[in-house]
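Schema walkthrough. Field components (list of strings):
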Amino acid sequence: MIINGETIAFAVFAIMAIVGGVGVAALRNLFHAALSLLVALFGVAGLFVLLAAPFLAMVQILVYMGAIAILIIFVIMLTQRVAGMREQYNRQWILSGLVALVVFGVLLMVISQLGTPENAMWNPSAVAATLPDDAGVAALGADLVDANRYVLPFEVAGLLMTVALIGAIAVARED
Amino acid sequence: MEPAPLNISAYVVLSAILFAMGALGVLIRRNAILVFMSVELMLNAANLALIAFARFYNQMDGQILVFFVMTVAAAEVAVGLALIVVIFRTRRSINIDELSRLKD
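Field assembly_structure (string):
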């Protein structure tokens, strides 16, 4: 393994993501768990940058960290009495841990299947490492409004957002 | 971006780790909000794998799929948190072990 800037950045962001993930799964204080979710989301955003997806990294920070995480913290404050914020795991935690381990094992099994020589995921030199010139934000934007590609899903996603927001207001309204 | 040897296996394995931790969170937590946060973590793990493969194949389709996943996740969070607030208002609790009224 070559130690360069990318490797170090990967290590930093990966550790952030994993530490945050452990916090989400294990911290007993609800508020601390929400904050560690923020750490995990930021780590994943950094990995998006390393994977040449800067636009999605920004969307991740704006939408996930800016909107979703803040919304979650708001709901924590709306629904918890501050004194009662500690919570217990449920009674089946041994079984739950086993199931999570099995999920992880199955995923690793599938990933190791990808490492055959013909598709060469484990063999970096076999892959063209350079991005095409038109890759990036411009290509993403063009694809989203291209009538032959993703304009219909794009419009449907917009409609879904509208319906979801109106629905959320209608559900949560006090009357 | 400078051309560098590319190996996405580390990203995909990290994505598997995050997904398993999210699954663990969904299973062991009793608070509905924390179950929700764990689901968000699992969605993020899937997004990471999608972007890694998009980078691997040098195609934008993976990134576009991630864009839609994020849209749907935002919609899901809005509706889900509204439901949690309503459940808390009527039952005074969001402990999912106590929310078994349909069973009785």
